Amino acid sequence: MSKTVVITNQKGGVGKTSTASAIISGLAEKGYKTLAIDLDPQGNLGFCLGAEIDNSPTVYELMKGTVSIDKIIQNNHGIDIIPSNILLSGAELEFSQIGREYLLKKGIAPIVDQYDYIIIDTPPALNILTVNAYTATDNLIIPMVPEILSLLGISQLSETIALVKNIYNPKIEVLGILLNKYDKRRLLTKDVEEMAEIIAKELNTKVFETKIRSSVAVAEAPAHGESIYQYAPRATSTKDYRNFVEELISEKGMKLDGKEKQ
């Protein structure tokens, strides 16, 4: 049975899509069969992974039920991708029917068992798309940067998680908080890190041991059509993301029964 992970934070600029892309590419590199789902109308995850996002059916059609999932999934460099585009931006108004919180879960139900891992990138907002992602997963990763405003975003996010847990998906848990753009030399970093630990306890989770250091390679790789591992294999952030993928798959709830890859 596949393990599904949602990358989430209502605040933009915290490295959500970069994190999702790095996790997906890292898992695929290790030989795991991986599905990427872009649930952000900006379509950045699909772009990073080399998907066609403008002239092909996307997660929008999947959630509407107008196109079968086998015609929506794209493949690039061994990674299966369900892309997104701007059509999804009207989801809050368009998806108004009873049961709209389960549209994504229902849409991917026919194929979930075909994958080892499913990684979902979400928009920087707490809306029906975010709720759909939470309903379709048991695991959340919250990226943040060492800034005070990033911490405020997480505290507000906890209310949405509690709502989904109480009504739609009682199994949902936060795997951990991932610190991005990490620079231990900055005085503020230490203060924010300590505050993140406090918030993690409130969410009944932890701050991951791996921290992702700043690197221009993270921003440059998508423009070259490559994963960070291909584009800058020796960059500090690349090494950090490799370590994070190892930490992630070693988590108790993320191990695949009877299946080990290298």
From TrEMBL:
InterPro entries, alphabetized: AAA_dom, DNA_Partitioning_ATPase, P-loop_NTPase
SUPFAM superfamilies, sorted: P-loop containing nucleoside triphosphate hydrolases
Catalytic reaction equation(s): ATP + H2O = ADP + phosphate + H(+)
The AAA domain, residue ranges: 3-174
A Pfam short name: AAA_31
Similarity comment: family membership: Belongs to the ParA family.
Subunit note: Dimerizes in the presence of ATP but not ADP; ATP-binding is required for double-stranded (ds)DNA-binding. Interacts with DnaA.
Name under which the protein is recorded: Sporulation initiation inhibitor protein Soj
Organism in which the protein naturally occurs: Sinanaerobacter chloroacetimidivorans
